[in-house]
Amino acid sequence: MHENFLRAVVEILFENVVFASNQTKVVLWQPPQKLEQCFDFSLGQNGVTQEKLLVFLKNTIKFSVKTGHRYFINQLFSGLDPYGLAGQWLTDALNASVYTYEVAPVFTLMETHIIGEVCRMVGPQWGDGMFCPGGSTANGTAINLARFRYCPDIKKSGSCGLSRFVLFTSEECHYSIHKFASFIGIGEDNVILISTDSIGQIVPEDLDEKIKKELAEGAIPLAVIATLGTTVRGAFDPICEIAEICKKYNIWLHIDAAWGGGLIFSQKHRAKLNGIERADSIVINPHKLLAVPQQCSILLVKNRDILYECHSKHAEYLFQKDKYYDKSYDLGDKYLQCGRKCDVFKFWFMWKAKGSSGFANHIDTLMDLAEYFEGQIRERPEFMLVSPRQYMNVCFWYLPRYLQGKQNILDYSAQLHKVAPQIKAMMIKHGSVMMGYQPLKKLPNFFRFVSQNSSVTKKDVTYILDLISEIGTAIYKVGHVRGCKVKVWKV
Ligand SMILES: Cc1ncc(COP(=O)(O)O)c(C=O)c1O
């Protein structure tokens, strides 16, 4: 009875998700109140039949976002890799927990192999690593390691009575730095933001000055967090200069390469990571650039003992001292989690299927596409680049006719700020393309094109830009406000 049910489930997934994603809309958007009405979220005392469950399955798919769709370019993950999916399915079917060799023999050795391999790709001195439930948690774990390095007693006695700890990071950093500074008791206010230049990179002189200032005020600089591939602009901080500053002041250097770190596979673009080996810890998210299914995030550390020293608790009901095998194979005690989903297999399986060269081709194809996208933005008068592209991120404004060449008019920024959200709303209601937008520092809202799906083509780029132009032309009908032509916004 369950066999037929599960076969039917797989068939539905094949038909409606895996092999359908490009024929359907990215999303069949419903406002929350309407979705509450057209989807039965209720739970009851008695279960429902398998036939009904299959209908719920179909409905769930119907109203969900198809992140494998080529026009899902909303986030730093996308695409649907067949080997990754197979890996994910196997992981879920086996439902292992990778804390002891006993419970997860294959996955334990696989983790050790893959972390060893990625460490070797970073540099000869790289020691150890761990899988984390996402880049945010990995960043937080690294900050905690930096504090432990400074003050190992903190593990037992806590931070009470210690001086003010401070972290330094880019003003364009990922928000997880603030979240985890707050979570582990450093405090958001003690995250010191370093200015970025016109393309989004940390200004090293500002870093040096701010460290000096904090030291003069009696604070303890715990870590500098540099980013290789910032979330919005895809900027790469100047690691070599930052590493020199960290050396001068003896500060832990953590590199958030959650987005950019996958470049390690590409001969052609690896140079963007130059200096990465000088860090003390690095986060790389294979679930972003390499399109491994979520979640797959790795924290690497140079010091091979620090994960055990900082995290271990030696619980005897799990890591018994008198095990029937060499208990050094049990990985669980170097982790913060106890039960832990196996994230390694899908990554290993994809790597096995494609080889390192397959990942390199994937990256190089995506970079070529991003270059083409940027070229199109430069060519079309209705678009304007926010800043020159450094990576996969192409940040741009759509300029309605009445704003083209009118940077000097009063209200220009305020008017432009409204454009991307209005066009996005239309795209989502249409269900055709899902693309992210955001403001940045003082810049008004702009679109960010970013794809991790290497089957997206130049034709798709044309489609996306034509669509934005068409929607823009349709919604910004000519009117008059303050002497300049303005839109009439209708949805
Ligand atoms: C630079 C950077 N670091 C960290 C993260 C957080 O990663 P996750 O979403 O896996 O928590 C992101 C997410 O986009 C990111 O862009």
Could you write a compact summary of the structure shown?
With 491 residues, this protein is α/β, with parallel strands linked by helices. The protein has helices at residues 2-18, 32-38, 50-63, 82-94, 105-122, 135-150, 154-157, 176-183, 204-216, 239-249, 306-311, 344-379, 412-430, 458-475, and strands at residues 72-73, 128-132, 165-170, 191-194, 220-227, 252-257, 281-284, 297-301, 383-385, 394-398, 434-440, 443-449, 479-481, 484-486.
Task: Describe the protein's architecture and organization.
One of its GO terms (biological process) is carboxylic acid metabolic process. The modification N6-(pyridoxal phosphate)lysine is found at residue 288. It is a single chain. By secondary structure, the chain is α/β, with parallel strands linked by helices. It has three domains: 2-67; 98-342, Aspartate Aminotransferase, domain 2 (3-Layer(aba) Sandwich); 353-486, Alpha-Beta Complex (Aspartate Aminotransferase, domain 1). Helices cover 41% and strands 14% of the residues. The protein is built from 14 helices and 14 strands. It has helices at residues 2-18, 32-38, 50-63, 82-94, 105-122, 135-150, 154-157, 176-183, 204-216, 239-249, 306-311, 344-379, 412-430, 458-475, and strands at 72-73, 128-132, 165-170, 191-194, 220-227, 252-257, 281-284, 297-301, 383-385, 394-398, 434-440, 443-449, 479-481, 484-486. Strands 2-8-7-6-5-3-4 form a seven-stranded mixed beta sheet, with helices on both faces. Strand 3 (165-170), helix 8 (176-183) and strand 4 form a beta-alpha-beta unit. Helix 6 (135-150) crosses helix 8 (176-183). It starts with a helix and ends in a 5-residue tail after the last strand. The structure holds pyridoxal-5'-phosphate (PLP). Pyridoxal-5'-phosphate (PLP) binds next to helix 6.
